[in-house]
Amino acid sequence: MTFLVVVLSFVMVFLSAILLYKKKHQRYYDLLKQFPSYRAYPIIGSIKPSHCVLNNLLKTFEELFKSHDRIIYWFGPKPILLLKNFDDISTIANQNSDRNLFGFAYQWLGNGILTHRHAEWKKSRKLLTPAFTSGMLEKYCHEFNKKFSTFVDKLKPFAVSGEEINIQEYVADSKMETTLESIMGISMEMSEKEVKGLGDAVYQSLYDILKRVMSPWLHPHIIYSIYLKLSGKTKIIKELNRLPTKIVKENLKNTNARKYQSENVDSSKCIVNLMIKARQDSSFTDTRLKDELLEMFGAGTDTTSQNVSFTLLMLAIHQDIQVCNSYRFHNTKNDCYIILQQKVYEEITQLVGEHEEFTSDHLFNHLKYLEQCIRETLRMFNPAASILRQTQKEHVLKDNTIVPADLSIGIVFHLAHRDTALYENPHKWNPENFSTQAIASRPKGSDLNFSIGPRSCIGTKYAILSNKSQIAQIIHNYHLSTSIKELKPEYLKMDISIRSKVGFPIRFTHRKKTRPENI
Ligand code: HEM
Ligand SMILES: *[C@@H]1O[C@H](CO)[C@@H](O)[C@H](O)[C@H]1NC(C)=O
Ligand SMILES: *[C@@H]1O[C@H](CO)[C@@H](O)[C@H](O)[C@H]1NC(C)=O
Ligand SMILES: CC(=O)N[C@H]1CO[C@H](CO)[C@@H](O)[C@@H]1O
């Protein structure tokens, strides 16, 4: 008798579990039906061969969004909701703190701030946040200034010879070193080759993760592991982990926190020292700390280096620009032209004169026009062209459409930033789009620059300051020009980031009176 009761209740519980599960999923699929879906087939889903060509991603997104602002794309059986509308993006990003890379990043990047989900991510974010307080940022400014003045010297030979160079190749390396030294507080001998090896491996890793996302046959973990072995990628993964592993060994095991000689800033908060502490409290294992380091490189370096190139190229292209506002500087007779690069230069020289150094105050509180130029570049060429999120609960969009829980969301910043509803002339670079009035004329927070909400970029201020420092020093010393007339939308391509098909060819000319004559 009791046996029967037990069996019966067991069956009841089992049946109601199935019913509940079905009901829950029924709602999920019902809610999905509210959104238009891209054509999908069994097994492969929506993926077409042309979608798998990685540097064609920009075209793919344009095709997907051709007649809709929201669209469901099927990665095989798995749906992903793609968004490009500012209202939708801000609703999701503001209320959500989860990223889901389908578990595709693990082999390359391990588990850290970028890839972790839920509670583990919170721990990472808490560990790293103190490295980005204003006090720390001020300290970094000193390091940027030192570093980038060396960089300016590196450009001298090209100013003398007058040849046009692809600036990106020079920018990338100097950024990597700055990140290693300032933000991480890493003190050890690293050869240029080691740093470059890490930079290349980071790029390869991000590229391969995206490639896997776009190649359904690489989705199963077993197949991917075999693919990694056969294609020799395991070597790159080793290279990727070499420097972070060495840093854990040589920097973190040394229990004396690293001191900064110069400033009276609390040096306990540079990343290495935060990690030494976390290691001593046994709150993080060595492997976890290595992964956190690696993911900070992944998030911080490729993104940073390219953008500087875009701003420099824009300043080189836009020697003058038509703006019919009340500008004090260099207006021509009809008040409709400003010499843009000259305006940036004058802002700099008015602040620091011809030869003085930049201070952290200059970078924090001044050079506002340069900042407008940087923000406009971020709008048009944001290196984080698209990102992935995952809903944890249901979200109600502005028009009352409900987004189901447990759904992957793809956010396409690149298209959101070129929305004609927000920017009259979205393919035209113009820093006036970020004047105080222009910002006020758009909905609050519609500038998505570094994303919004709890999971937005941890390095926002750092990136802006480092950029300002680098560009200010270059413009302070050189006049820029280029053979490119305009960076048209068709000159761009997108893979892990937005790229220029025509490179970043720039010619540097000395500005200082001390420049050698007759060369
Ligand atoms: C121009 C430069 C940069 C841009 C445009 C940028 C943009 C972004 C974006 C859009 C995200 C994703 C946010 C989201 O999911 O909503 C992100 C995340 C992140 N970024 Fe940046 N970033 C830049 C530079 C940096 C730098 C210099 C660092 C480090 C020093 C950094 C560290 C991170 C980290 C750690 C995350 C993950 C945050 C988390 O998941 O909690 N980024 N960034
Ligand atoms: C942004 O710049 C473009 C290009 O000059 C201009 O046409 C447009 O009016 C600007 N938009 C805003 C909101 O200022
Ligand atoms: C990014 O956008 C927000 C508004 O969405 C703005 O408050 C912030 O200043 C912007 N940051 C940069 C660096 O452009
Ligand atoms: C802008 C861009 O295309 N990204 C580049 C960043 O720099 C590295 C190193 O030079 C290049 O490999 C990337 O292609």
Automatic annotation (TrEMBL):
GO terms for molecular function: heme binding; iron ion binding; monooxygenase activity; oxidoreductase activity, acting on paired donors, with incorporation or reduction of molecular oxygen. Heme binds at residue 457. The keyword Membrane applies. GO terms for cellular component: endoplasmic reticulum membrane. It is a peripheral membrane protein. Keywords: Endoplasmic reticulum, Heme, Iron, Membrane, Metal-binding, Microsome, Monooxygenase, Oxidoreductase. InterPro entries: Cyt_P450, Cyt_P450_CS, Cyt_P450_E_grp-I, Cyt_P450_sf, Cytochrome_P450_Monoox. It is found in: Endoplasmic reticulum membrane; Microsome membrane. The keyword Heme applies. Its cofactor is heme. Belongs to the cytochrome P450 family. This is Cytochrome P450 4461J2. It comes from Maconellicoccus hirsutus (Pink hibiscus mealybug). The lineage of its organism: Eukaryota, Metazoa, Ecdysozoa, Arthropoda, Hexapoda.
